[in-house]
Specification:
Bound molecules: iron/sulfur cluster
Low-confidence stretches: 348-366
Order of helices and strands: HHEEHEHEHEHHEEHEHEHHEHHEHH
Number of helices: 15
Radius of gyration: 19 Å
CATH topology: TIM Barrel
Oligomer: single chain
Structural class: alpha/beta
Shape: globular
Largest sheet: 8 strands, parallel
Length: 366
Amino acid sequence: MTPDCKTEIAEILRNTDPSLDRQLLDKADHCRRQHLGSAVYPRGLIEFSNSCPRNCFYCGLRRGNSLIRRYHLEREQIIELALQAYNDGYHSICLQSGELSSGREMDFMVDLVSTIKRCSSKKSGPGLGITLSLGELTYKQYRRLWDAGAHRYLLRIETSNPLLFQRIHPPEQNYNRRLECLEALREIGYQVGTGVMIGLPGQSYEDLAGDLEFFLAKDIDMLGMGPYIPHPDTPLAQEKPESIPDAFSTSIRMLALARILMPDINMVASTALQSIHPDGLRLGLKAGANIVMPVLTPEEKRKDYMLYAYKKYRDFEHLKQDIQEAGYELTLWQWGDSPHYFKRRELSTPDCSPAGNNICSLRQRT
Ligand code: SF4
């Protein structure tokens, strides 16, 4: 991405002209329908533990937050939730928790993944597709989980600006370490997902343009982005977002730009997007998102899994109806993997060039 292109992207993100927004969404939607059709794939999200040894300044699960009740679902309960999701046609789940911190937890996870895989495969076909989101682990640990049967991993960079990264994390958490983890996941063979928060204190539109450049450079397969929503019991909530006044609209523009730049990746309409705006799901889909993550965590635990404040949940029937009304199709009984992953594995040189989808000429055409 050239410096001029980055400047232009920052201008598009800064824009408040509704007609430019409409054109941006139309282009993103066209691009998505051309490359991915109208399918929207669910990932049943099981937040199986809210314990975390980390202390990220923005996160409600940080170890310093003594105001939440820590929980860990039982092995059998997690397996039951996963198999129920499979029976309901989800065919892909995401197992998420705070960062794993001990060898015992890793053994638990490896057993869990392989058991879910084995039990679901017995029923029919290739079994459940398993995405993991368990934080920064060692190469060996990622490898063990891959061998157990997981094949997608989400690890958000949160911001591609190393200085901003350091501002929202304690000193022991290191930007380069996160890059190493993303690299390890890719090398092992995972479909790799990352993402950022939008509207962080100290973040600029230029940072966000840099985030898009980062996703392209890392040749990612999956993307999860959403507005930063402060959690009142975190240190970052004390800081005022300075330069991005409308995190929701900026998030929608970021999704649309990402879809145009990376037409064949999987992109999630995040819960954060849906939590801060009544039309968040529809606009997220229109901007190119093709994945939703219905929460399967037992209801009595959900209030203890608040990464950010005011997290909202939609039941399956409403979600399905909202997707249909937006003009898309909730697609069950399929894994819904990222087409980009297969393309890059086939090619010796990753092809992430946004051919025919040149953002930098968008303004000229509008
Ligand atoms: S963002 Fe992740 S690693 Fe950081 S405190 Fe929250 S759960 Fe832990």
